[in-house]
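Throughout our pipeline, every protein is held as a single compact record rather than as scattered files. Such a record has a labelled line for the sequence and another for the backbone structure tokens. This encoding replaces a full spatial description with a residue-level series of whole-number codes. For reference, a complete record is included directly beneath this paragraph.
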Amino acid sequence: MRTLPQPPGVPEHRSADRFLWWLARKEWRSLLWAGTATGTFRISSVLFSAAIGAAIDSDVVHGDLEALLTWFGVLAALTVVSAVLVPVAHRAECFNWYASAYRTVQVVTAHSVRMGPTLTRRLPSGEVVAVGTEDIDRIGDFYESAGEILSSLVAVLVISVLMLRSHVTFGLVVLVAVPLIMGAMTPLLRLFSRRREHQRDRQADLTTLATDLVAGLRVLRGVGGERTAEHGYRSSSQRVRAASVRVGRVDAALHAVREFYPGLLLVGIVWYGARLALTGEITVGQLVAFYGYTGTLAGTVRQMMRVTSAFVSARVAAGRVVRVLRLEHDHPDPERPAPEPVGPCALHDPRSGVTIAARGTTGVVCADPTDATAITERLGRYRDEEGADAVLVEESTGRSVRLRDLPLALVRRRVLVAANDAHLFSGTLREELSPDGGISDARLAEVVRTAHADDVVRQSAAGLDALLTERGREYSGGQQQRLRLARALAADPEILLLVEPASAVDAHSESAIAERLPSERAGRTTALVTTSPLLLDHTDRVQYVEEGRLVAEGTHRELLATSPRYAATVLRTVSVEDGP
């Protein structure tokens, strides 16, 4: 048994059927093994019925002890084989569930990470959550039972051959009845597919609503919107309930059909066999064997119908998965990437005129916070604007390369934007600061000290091994901000853009961060997008932006003395030039 998860590979996302086929190709050995084990179990059941029929027609009925022992040995051997195959088949089926579900989770998660903010702009958050909670279960359920397809076909074939050899009519009945039974399910399966699709849509809408409610709960309480939100959620929940009930009705009808049609086949074959036995056309042993065949056949047909229902649900789920995988990034990689800039680089935004100097700390102050957001997004290539693409400028040669002309993964590796809305993930503090585990404790201690987050680490006796909940909710806003800063510093990117890294901390912590940050980032390119005088006083140069354009540049103290508007912005005072 292989260890899970396995490398996922490149998924086929042109359609739901192609995605399911891709999963089957990836796990064909395990699916074949499950089908073989289950098929052998079913054949053992068929042979058991044949052996009982043969024993009845043998000399056992005349008291032959040797024949009795012989048939006892055959039946015992078939029983042992069946007992051994049960756990083997079940183990293989469980592996198929986990393999298909994990592989689906892997490809969806990897694509979601590549998409970044594009994902939530293109798709409701509830849709993504539903893929990871409901759809993988449906896909896993199908592949858990997919081995039954092979085993059922083999069992039907073996039973047909045995019946044809004993009585042609019986064999023909089996060969004709099974396809007719499966075909009779088609109308119900189509209805089931439509209702499952509708129910899945309503479930995704409800999950999106729940996610939005949790995220905005404090705001809702602040404006007294709880009752309105509750009413909206209740209405959406009732729509999901109604859709689920409609799915349940069709599913119940499918369960009834799965019992009725095979049962009808069983009654018909036993009745016809009994008539043949009374007329002497078949022996009593053959009638008993036929009854056993029909029982196995009825169970096989039921399983085939279950697999068909599971396929319908999996196909709906795969369609949702494919919808996620087919999303394209807002910032695609260039068809012909430019050569990567070498050595230390400056980062320049042509639209505003802002330049983040190489191997230095540059302050960026914007009179309008929306300008700060726009500039940061362009410098990090989170926003592409025609004719205003940010560029990397080689310090040694002056050669400039647009970020648009470089692979996005390379841009993300060289340029890190650390904003205050960055997510804190659950896990230990050590895993949060060093996700790949490649940073030593000594280095982690350095970045924690620079971010003035020592108290956060000392808050628990476990230190860096203390558990962090989702979004770090057990910590205050200032503590969360310092953890984000420590994580950004631990990443040690070539170019680091820090957006208001100390806006939520007290003055003492802000002063400590301002003093330690330049030495921590010595020799690296750093931008502080902030209006904090304490931070700006420790920068090499400051660039002041008004109405989206660079209007002044110098040291913090120079600009305080020469630019009243700059002073008003960073000191939170009213400029004399602005009037009363």
User: Anything to note?
Assistant: The CA atoms of residues 453 and 483 lie 7 Å apart. DSSP finds 21 helices and twelve strands in the chain.
